[in-house]
Amino acid sequence: MNKPLRNPEIVWRVEKRRQAEVLKALETGEDVADTGTVILLLSGMMHQLNLIGGMIWEQCDGQKTLADIAGELAKEFSVEQAEVESDVAEFVADLAERGWLINE
Amino acid sequence: MSEVTEMFSAPLTFNWTLSYRCNFTCDHCYSRDEECPELITDDLKRIVDILVEQQVPFINFGGGEPLICKDLYEIAEYASKSGLNVSMNSNGWLLDEAAAQRLKDVGFKSVGISIDSFEPSLHDGFRNMPGSFERAVHGLDALHKVGLKSTMSSVISRINYQAFRELLDLARDHGVGQVYLHNFKCSGRGFKNREDLDLTPEEWQAFYLEALAVKHQTKDLKISFDDPVIASLPEYQEKTMVKGSSCGKLSLHLQPNGDITPCGFIPVVVGNILNDDFESIWFDSPVLKAMRSKEATGKCSGCAAFDDCQGGCTARAFATTGDFNQPDPHCWK
Ligand SMILES: C[S@@+](CC[C@H](N)C(=O)[O-])C[C@H]1O[C@@H](n2cnc3c(N)ncnc32)[C@H](O)[C@@H]1O
Ligand code: SF4
Ligand code: SF4
Domain containing A44: what range? Predict the structure, then answer.
């Protein structure tokens, strides 16, 4: 999967208030891995993505490559791109397997 | 903040009544006797803008009969171009192939047709409109022909509760993918006619047990119930996004003048979408807060199902007692 694209059947939104709260919690060093900030609605079911997952999801527009997405994420968290590349690839592969992302 | 607003910064769906006007006078209708001033087209578009800004993903037009509203197509097109997922419910009378095509062209994602019995004479009698069964079925066929997704809505009442399987077959025969077996609400004309139309609690229980068994065996059709009181049955295993009634939690209702109510069946105005700050309504309305954190009252106190059932349908409790916290009159416990 090189340029992942969100499955257009999925309705989603960023829960802005929660995202802001999670970002604040992150600053104080809290563990926010289990808090959803993006909701996905798919055939009457709701799924949630946490902050990092949600950020990756938002980038999956069918234009950006995995490297682009890793680059954006690295910039956001001020780390080296190489540090996040495998996480991005793993997350995208997982969502692709569920059919939530498709390859453009 | 309640659990709901911690989770959702806005509802997922707005049920939108553009007008209460209708070409039918159905015996059960909660809205047929309502009257309300209507907004001009520009104001309706402003509402769409607010919904987009608030990231509400779905709108569903009801009424009244949406197909007699002159603004329907223009507003639906404006909304779908703005990224909203648009659907509606109709009695099907005016839904010929040209109308179906137009609905598709303006971006409707799906259209629901109300059919309340598989027997034409029963449907026509219930809806006080000779020929309405045939036209509703033609409506489904028109949607199928133009390739617009259709659903079917049937309000369960004395005229159909023992023949819901036939309603499912009718849906299958006309290309419907999803059937809503709606629970009866004692509001409006439904309140006046409830003695003739509503089932007893024991009949509701028996109906749901049967309907759940059919649902579990059915693969080719999606069968949906929207009745929170069903959660008290051990046979009900579905995971829902919220417990209890979804109104005021996942959805809100818009009246023709822009007033917001928790749902179409609860005539309590919590604010106006054009005149009030939406976030203050969503996060701070005392009425919405009360609906989201109900207190077990009467037989609900101590009921093991309260956690899942939340006292059942808040609209029914309110319509019959004036109190959100009373047990749903349909409850069989
Ligand atoms: C009010 S109608 C508006 C759309 C359109 N006129 C129609 O009949 O489909 C929306 C849906 O609400 C249902 N409805 C009306 N009164 C009801 C009641 N008292 N309890 C439950 N559903 C009701 C109708 O049967 C219909 O399926
Ligand atoms: S149920 Fe629909 S068609 Fe019947 S009176 Fe009510 S709004 Fe009109
Ligand atoms: S007693 Fe109340 S909580 Fe228990 S099943 Fe009935 S309505 Fe639901």
Answer: 4-103
Predicted TM-score (pTM) of the model is 0.95
Ligand 3 pocket test, pick from B202, B205, B331, B332 with the greatest ligand atom count within 8 Å of Cβ, gives B331
Q: Which chain B residue has the Cα nearest residue A15?
A: B9
pLDDT digits (tens, 9 = 90+) for A37-76: 999 999 888 999 999 999 999 999 999 999 999 999 999 9
Please report the ipTM that was assigned to this predicted complex: 0.89
B192 contact partners, CB below 8 Å, separation of at least 6: none
Domain count, chain A: 1
- d(CA B168, CA B153) in angstroms, rounded, equals 10
Contact B47, A54 (CB under 8 A): no
User: Which of B1, B8, B9 is the mutation pick for testing A, counting most A CBs within 10 A?
Assistant: B9
CATH number of the domain at A22, please.
1.10.10.1150
Q: Helix, strand, coil proportions of chain A in percent (round to 5)?
A: 50, 25, 30
